[in-house]
Write a structure and sequence with these properties.
Elements: E1 5-7, E2 13-17, E3 20-25, E4 30-32, E5 47-50, E6 59-64, E7 70-75, E8 112-115, E9 121-126, E10 131-136, E11 141-145, E12 150-152, H1 174-180
């Protein structure tokens, strides 16, 4: 005969499907083997998780809204809660577009924004020197300090000489940038308009 329900004295309760255990109570909660399907009874009634002890008024909710979109929401008693996602290595988001609709997008001191499949470009805040760094992955680019000065690395300019030989029509020449930025340290190192 097949077992459907097994109640163990002073221990677990087990539920079976076709003699295969799918659900079991434990001393810390329950264990589900296989898929857990939730059929909502309304547009915001999905899976709700409440906090422990004095945080019992705080909750998180996962559900499908009236437009068919997946929602992950949290309610914090003090109105200042947030959602944390921790990954052992990295977090990968796969979507056609990533849209952020709030006022601020914050990256803390130790982090940086990397762009490109190989992290070809990076934007980061250097807390030690209190400046913003916009560089390629081989550290070529621009550094902005906290009073608005911009410093380019020696390799930041790739000039193309014109027929006059001075490269004056190239947007990346020092003379052109000097005309745009006044009173800033925009270049370090010897300047050679020929690109040599």
């Amino acid at each position: 005969s097949e077992v459907s329900i097994r109640a163990n004295q002073d221990s677990s309760v087990e539920l079976f499907f076709d003699n295969s255990k799918k659900f079991e109570t434990t001393n810390t909660g329950v264990t589900v083997t296989g898929s857990l399907n939730v059929n909502q009874t309304d547009d915001s009634n999905g899976i709700k998780i409440y906090g422990y002890d004095d945080r019992s008024a705080y909750s998180g909710n996962i559900y499908i809204d009236s437009s068919g979109n997946l929602q992950i929401r949290q309610t914090h008693g003090a109105g200042s809660g947030y959602i944390q996602i921790h990954a052992e290595n990295y977090l990968e988001l796969v979507a056609g577009s990533l849209i952020y609709t709030q006022a601020n997008f914050r990256i803390y001191d130790a982090g940086q924004l990397s762009l490109g499949n190989s992290g070809d470009y990076k934007i980061k805040y250097n807390v030690a020197s209190d400046n913003l760094i916009i560089h390629t992955n081989d550290n070529k680019g621009i550094t902005l300090d906290n009073v608005g000065n911009a410093t380019f690395t020696d390799q930041a300019f790739a000039t193309t000489a014109t027929s006059s030989g001075d490269g004056s029509s190239t947007l990346t020449t020092k003379g052109y940038v000097d005309g745009l930025i006044t009173g800033a340290t925009i270049y370090r190192g010897a300047w050679d308009p020929s690109g040599g």
